[in-house]
C-alpha cells in the first residue's frame, strides 16, 4: 500500500466531493486506473493518487493485478473494495417489474420478470415487491447486500425521494418510496425516474469518449435522461430531460394529463399509439400489441409507428442542436421497431446542423430492457458507497485532533 504522510491524509480527506466522484467512477466501471480517473476528472495525477490511497486504506477501493499501458510502469487495476457485494434492483412497469442483482462495475445477474400492478398503489404493491427482492437477496447472500434500487415510470423529486404527479401511477403521488424501502431493508435505497436510470445504466457500458448523451425511453410514456460530462444532469429541480410535455402542432387538440393539449406524449408515446390504432379499429390494448402489429407489417401500425418516430425526432432535433451531444440512445418498446428508429434518425439528420450530426451516434440502447435495471442498481451502490465514505470521514474527524491556533 502506498505510504502517505499525515499532511497528505488531511489533504485527501479535505476533498470529499473528489473522493465520492472517484468511488462513483470505479464502482460503475467507468475507470479502473489512476490514469483513467485523472483523465476523466481533469485532476492532477498526484491529487488522484492521494485520494485513491486514502480510499484504499479505508477499504472502499482495492487494487489488484496490472493492466498494460502505453508506456511507463504497468497500471494497478482499481475495483470497489468488496467485489462480492451487490444491490438488488427493480425496474417497474404498469403490469410487471424486471428485477435482478447488480454488481459493482455494472454486472447484472439473476434477472427475471415478475408480476407487479402499479395501479394497486404503493401500500399494496411495494410489500409484495419487497418480498421478491428479499428472496433474491437471500439466494445471493443477504449479508453482502448493500443497496436497493428502484426505477419508477414517473417524475421523481430527488429532494423528497418520492414520485410527484405521475400520470399513470394512482396513489403514488408524494409517497415516501425511498424511506419505505430503507426502513424495510435497513440499508441505503435509491429511487429514480426510469429514463434517468436507463441513461446511467447505458452510460456504464458505452465508450468513455461519449461524455454528453441523451437517452430517450419510449414506452407507454416518453422520458429522457441527460448525461453531461459523464454525469447525470438533473437540472434545477430534478426535472431535466422531461421532453414529454413539449408541445407540437400535430397534437394541438389532444388533451394531456398535464392539463395542456398537444404534448409530445399525446402523439408519440406507446399509450398514444394504442389510442390512435383503437380509434382506427385495431384490436390493441398495450404498446406490446402495437409492436407486434408493426413487426407483422400491419400497414396502419407501421404508419402510426413511423409518424410517432417523426414527431419524436422533431422534438429531439431542437434539443440536439442546442446541446450538441456525442450520442442519442433510444430505449423502450418502440425503440425495438426499425420504422420508428429510422424516422427519428431521418428527422435528426434533416433538422440538425451538419456540424452537430457529423459524429453523432444514434442507436438503440445496447443493454436493451436491462438498461434501467443496471442504472437503478448503480444508484443504490453509489448511495451505499457515499454513506460508507461519510461514515469513514466522520470517524477520521473524531479521531484526528483539531489543529491548534497560536
Q: Name the helix and strand elements from N-terminus to C-terminus, one letter apiece.
A: HHHHEEEEEHEEEHEHEEEHHHHEHHEH
Q: Unreliable runs, pLDDT <50, ≥5 residues?
A: 1-14, 400-406
What is the percentage of strand-forming residues?
15-25%
Distance from N terminus to C terminus (CA atoms, Å) equals 35 Å
The radius of gyration over CA amounts to: 23 Å
Summed over residues and divided by their number, the pLDDT gives a mean of: 89
The DSSP helix count reads 14
In short:
The chain is α/β, with parallel strands linked by helices.
Structure description:
The chain has 406 residues and is of the alpha/beta class. 43% of the residues lie in helices and 19% in strands. It is built from 14 helices and 14 strands. A five-stranded mixed β-sheet has the order 5-4-3-6-9, sandwiched between helices. Strand 1 (61-67) and strand 2 (75-80) form a beta hairpin.
Keywords:
14 helices; alpha/beta; 406 residues; single chain; five-stranded mixed beta sheet; disordered N terminus
Topology record:
Layout: H1 6-13, H2 16-28, H3 34-41, H4 45-57, E1 61-67, E2 75-80, E3 86-92, E4 96-102, E5 108-115, H5 122-140, E6 145-152, E7 156-157, E8 162-163, H6 177-185, E9 189-193, H7 194-203, E10 213-218, E11 222-228, E12 231-233, H8 265-268, H9 270-279, H10 287-295, H11 299-323, E13 327-331, H12 338-351, H13 354-357, E14 361-364, H14 371-399
Parallel strand pairs: 3-6, 6-9, 10-13, 13-14
Antiparallel strand pairs: 1-2, 3-4, 4-5, 7-8, 10-11, 11-12
Helix pairs in contact: 1-4, 2-4, 2-14, 3-4, 5-6, 7-14, 9-10, 10-11, 11-12
Amino acid at each position: 500500500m502506498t505510504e502517505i504522510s499525515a499532511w497528505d491524509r488531511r489533504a485527501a480527506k479535505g476533498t470529499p466531493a473528489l473522493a465520492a466522484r472517484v468511488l462513483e467512477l470505479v464502482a460503475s466501471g467507468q475507470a479502473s486506473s489512476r490514469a483513467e480517473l485523472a483523465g476523466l476528472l481533469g485532476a492532477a495525477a498526484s491529487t488522484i493518487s492521494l485520494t485513491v490511497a486514502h480510499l484504499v486504506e479505508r477499504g472502499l477501493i482495492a487494487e489488484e493485478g496490472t493492466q498494460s499501458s502505453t508506456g511507463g510502469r504497468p497500471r494497478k487495476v482499481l475495483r470497489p473494495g468488496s467485489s462480492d457485494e451487490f444491490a438488488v434492483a427493480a425496474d417497474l412497469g404498469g403490469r410487471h417489474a424486471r428485477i435482478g442483482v447488480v454488481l459493482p462495475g455494472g454486472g447484472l445477474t439473476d434477472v427475471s420478470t415478475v408480476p407487479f400492478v402499479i395501479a394497486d398503489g404503493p401500500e399494496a404493491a411495494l410489500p409484495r415487491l419487497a418480498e421478491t427482492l428479499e428472496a433474491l437477496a437471500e439466494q445471493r447472500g443477504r449479508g453482502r447486500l448493500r443497496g436497493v434500487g428502484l426505477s419508477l415510470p414517473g417524475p421523481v423529486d430527488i429532494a423528497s425521494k418520492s414520485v410527484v404527479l405521475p400520470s399513470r401511477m394512482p396513489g403514488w403521488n408524494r409517497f415516501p418510496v425511498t424511506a419505505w424501502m430503507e426502513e424495510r431493508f435497513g440499508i441505503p435505497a435509491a429511487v429514480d425516474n426510469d429514463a434517468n436510470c436507463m441513461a446511467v445504466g447505458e452510460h456504464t457500458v458505452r465508450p468513455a469518449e461519449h461524455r454528453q448523451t441523451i437517452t430517450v425511453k419510449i414506452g407507454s410514456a416518453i422520458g429522457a435522461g441527460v448525461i453531461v460530462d459523464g454525469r447525470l444532469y438533473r437540472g434545477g429541480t430534478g426535472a431535466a430531460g422531461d421532453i414529454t410535455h413539449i408541445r407540437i402542432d400535430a397534437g394541438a387538440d389532444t388533451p394531456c394529463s398535464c392539463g395542456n393539449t398537444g404534448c409530445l406524449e399525446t402523439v408519440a408515446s406507446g399509450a398514444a399509439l394504442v389510442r390512435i390504432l383503437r380509434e382506427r379499429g385495431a384490436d390493441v390494448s398495450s404498446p406490446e400489441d402495437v409492436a407486434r402489429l408493426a413487426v407483422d407489417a400491419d400497414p396502419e401500425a407501421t404508419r402510426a409507428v413511423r409518424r410517432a418516430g417523426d414527431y419524436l425526432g422533431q422534438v429531439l432535433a431542437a434539443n440536439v442542436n442546442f446541446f450538441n451531444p456525442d450520442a442519442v440512445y433510444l430505449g423502450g418498446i418502440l425503440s425495438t421497431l426499425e420504422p420508428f428508429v429510422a424516422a427519428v434518425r431521418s428527422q435528426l439528420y434533416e433538422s440538425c446542423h451538419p456540424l452537430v450530426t457529423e459524429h453523432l451516434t444514434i442507436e438503440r440502447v445496447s443493454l436493451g430492457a436491462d438498461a434501467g435495471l443496471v442504472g437503478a442498481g448503480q444508484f443504490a451502490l453509489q448511495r451505499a458507497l457515499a454513506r460508507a465514505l461519510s461514515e469513514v470521514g466522520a470517524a477520521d474527524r473524531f479521531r484526528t485532533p483539531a489543529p491548534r491556533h497560536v
